[in-house]
Design goal:
Strand content: 15-25%
Bound molecules: 6-O-phosphono-beta-D-glucopyranose
CATH topology of the largest domain: Dihydrodipicolinate Reductase, domain 2
Mean pLDDT: 93
Radius of gyration: 24 Å
Number of strands: 17
Low-confidence stretches: 503-510
Oligomer: single chain
Distance between the termini: 48 Å
CATH architecture of the largest domain: 2-Layer Sandwich
Helix content: 25-40%
Length: 510
């Protein structure tokens, strides 16, 4: 039951003139409005440094919706009804006096509604401002109704373990953990949420979901885009902070976690924490054997020449920042001992695809003569998160005909055949969860710290190295050479999207 919906609601968005609000937050709120998920009485206050009229602000949001919303273009009447609840408040987030204006607006709104409102503060600002916004919100007594106030943090939450701890400590002095929502937009993706449904709503896979039947797991999140105009952010982040610390480790948790007792937020988060605890810590001497980094040089993507990382705007010409990471993780618990989890992510790679592949062990003995099974392949379960949204189970079957010939076929669940057009965007799911007070898909403070702790030795080692030592890869390739060797040493190779995505039920050799 959505208690938020039955009461007046206010959204205060800090950093409201930024890209994230235009592309994601407001389009998500607008779609929730269209689908009747927002409270009957609601108000959105956007705040930024620039001075804008309400009208100018609304126009910029409309442009964002018309460009980025899954339900674009906006319907004129519906937009007018939505836009009438949006206001702009110019404020310097460092200046406490600016916050009194929010308080006044919220009070007026409550008086008009004749009822207290629930308030969500959304911090779509650089992490360095998280602390000051929280302090000013608290100082102005804008957050003291614990049940009625929530605060949402965009990633990255911290820059390293020390800063994440400091941030958690300062935020938790002002807010209860129940009020805090640390966003990892990957967890709001339909296909990512379905991992839990797939694992915990089917009895079929659980008996096989362990070291006895699974040989290796690969989690590959590749992008063919570069860093666009985010050079200043990316230079400070790199692929390890940008993708591994949050999105990819969360995917590892979803695949490796034990079955929770219930779907309650803390039950799920406890089980994920256990995975993070069980991932073997990196010892300095092992880092070079277990991790690979890389930086793209110029190359060609889909027939177009693209510049190298060091030539991108706002990037140091001698930068040592990694745009590619591959790692082998070992999970020290009964379920996964000895089973490698290979993870990989990078910019400007050959194809954009987020895919989890679970390769099962081979049959203990083959009863068929070799020539009948030329394209023999171990069973694989392929969870494709994007752009294809599907789950494939690859099996060996007999090719129809007079001869006994074995071949690999797919059993396919394709979201496109199942109302995918109606699938909400990750931000819609997550914003609705914030409203409903459901923290299942959000990172708890201890999870964030544990993820940083795990990666600190690697970050430190890479930071200490000479920037020119970073291995290079051509834009449009599958990453640096070391990435292939990481798996080759174990007798494996990366499953790239073109190998995995066969046409359903066609008898094709791999
Ligand atoms: C963001 C990263 O968190 O995730 C980006 O900062 C990355 O660098 C993006 O491109 C990928 O998300 P998605 O949803 O496009 O796969």
């Amino acid at each position: 039951m959505n208690a938020f919906k039955s009461q007046p609601g206010v959204f205060v968005i800090f950093g409201a003139t930024g890209d994230l609000n235009l592309r994601k937050i407001t389009p998500a709120l607008y779609n929730l409005f269209l689908d009747n998920w927002l409270p009957h009485e609601f108000m959105i206050i956007g705040s930024g440094r620039r001075s804008l009229t309400d009208e100018q602000f609304r126009d910029s949001l409309l442009q964002g919706i018309n460009q980025f919303s899954r339900k674009r273009p906006a319907d004129a009447d519906k937009w007018a009804a939505f836009a009438g609840r949006i206001f702009y408040q110019a404020a310097d987030i460092n200046d406490p006096s600016g916050y009194t204006a929010f308080g006044q607006r919220i009070k007026e709104f409550e008086t008009n509604c004749g009822q207290e409102a629930n308030v969500i503060y959304y911090l779509a600002v650089a992490p360095s401002f998280f602390g000051v916004v929280c302090e000013n919100v608290a100082k102005n007594k804008l957050s003291n109704k614990i049940q009625r106030t929530r605060i949402v943090f965009e990633k990255p939450f911290g820059h390293d373990l020390e800063s994440a701890k400091a941030l958690n400590a300062s935020v938790s002095k002002l807010f209860d953990e129940k009020q805090i929502y640390r966003i990892d937009h990957y967890l709001g993706k339909e296909t990512v949420q379905n991992i839990m449904a797939f694992r915990f709503a089917n009895s079929l896979f659980e008996p096989l979901w362990n070291r006895n039947y699974i040989e290796q797991v690969q989690i590959s999140v590749t992008e063919n885009l570069g860093i666009a105009d985010r050079g200043d952010y990316y230079e400070q982040a790199g692929a390890l902070r940008d993708m591994v610390q949050n999105h990819i480790l969360q995917l590892v948790c979803l695949i490796a976690m034990e079955v929770p007792v219930s779907f309650k937020a803390n039950e799920v988060r406890n089980k994920k924490m256990d995975v993070l605890h069980a991932i073997r810590k990196f010892k300095s001497k092992d880092i070079s054997g277990l991790t690979v980094r890389g930086q793209y040089s110029k190359g060609t993507i889909q027939g177009k020449a693209v510049p190298g990382y060091r030539e991108e705007s706002k990037v140091d010409a001698h930068s040592g920042t990694e745009s590619f990471v591959a790692m082998k993780l070992n999970i020290d618990n009964w379920r996964w001992q000895g089973i490698p989890f290979y993870i990989r992510t990078g910019k400007r790679l050959q194809q954009s695809a987020s895919i989890i592949t679970i390769q099962f062990k081979d049959t203990p003995h083959s009863v068929f003569p070799k020539e009948t099974a030329k394209t023999w392949q171990q069973n694989r379960l392929i969870i494709s998160i994007q752009p294809e949204m599907s789950i494939r189970l690859q099996l060996q079957t007999k090719k129809p005909g007079l001869e006994m010939v074995l071949n690999t076929v797919d059993m396919l669940f394709d979201y496109n055949s199942e109302d995918a057009v109606h699938s909400p965007e990750a931000y819609e799911t997550l914003l609705l969860d914030v409203m409903e007070g459901d923290q299942t898909l959000f990172m708890r403070g201890d999870q964030v710290e544990m993820a940083w702790e795990l990666l600190m030795p690697v970050l430190k080692k890479w930071q200490e190295s000479d920037p020119d030592e970073i291995p290079k890869y051509d834009a449009g390739s599958w990453g640096p050479e070391g990435s292939d060797s990481l798996l080759k040493n174990d007798g494996f190779h990366w499953f790239n999207v073109n190998e995995l995505e066969k046409k359903d039920n066609e008898f094709k050799s791999i």
